[in-house]
Amino acid sequence: MESRAAERGGVPDVASAGLLIAAFATLAYGIMAVRQDAPVGLAVVAGGLALGGAFVWRSLRAATPALDLRLFRRRSFAIANAMTLVFSVAFTAMFFGNVFFLTERWGLSILQAGLWIAPGPVTVMPVAILSGRISDRFGYRPLFIAGGLLYSLGALWLLYRVDMAASFLLWLRARSSWALRSAWCCPR
Question: What distances in angstroms separate CA 86 from CA 90, 91, 135, 186, one per listed residue?
């Protein structure tokens, strides 16, 4: 849809972009405010949802919307975005869970926990390059299966060893399966 906007020569609708920014900011604030004062937080979340609805309404009517919602009529586009959302939520939750595990269960400081987590993301890039080449040759299915199995085995192994004292090598072994899974499921 970029080509249509370029042909029209219009600037993307500033009002819909502003509504989208306000909706996400309000939702984020509301989610955080629920812990302090549930009724106020829920009211703010409702306001964020209303702003999101206003964004959709405005985007469907604007000549050059900031986000062309007609793209979601394409099944492949809608499914890809839904799966990206699910993966992103799970991925973010995993990072929070890792930090909470390292700090609460094994008693590490936040800085130590961050340093212990760092090798995982660092290994993603070289493995992603390799997995891109493998997927070109064999397809994505073997990588998805291998990545999912590695991740599951690493998580089970860590769960089995969870009562042990903090050990960077134990953590590194369990998390290396995460890095491989992340890179293999999302090559290049």
Answer: 6, 8, 23, 14
- Helices within the chain (DSSP H only): 2-8, 14-33, 38-61, 75-100, 110-117, 119-138, 141-160, 168-185
Torsions phi, psi for 10 (to 5 deg): -90, 155
Give the angle 22-61-6 at the CA atoms, nearest 5°.
90
Query: Looking at this protein, which amino acid is placed at residue 161?
Result: R
Predicted confidence (pLDDT) per residue in 118-177, tens digit:
887 888 788 888 888 888 888 878 887 887 788 778 777 777 766 667 777 777 766 665
Which tokens is 71 given? 């793209």
Residues 131, 143 contacting (CB under 8 angstroms): yes
- Going by C-alpha positions, the residue among 74, 69, 70 that lies closest to residue 56 is 69
pTM to 2 decimal places: 0.59
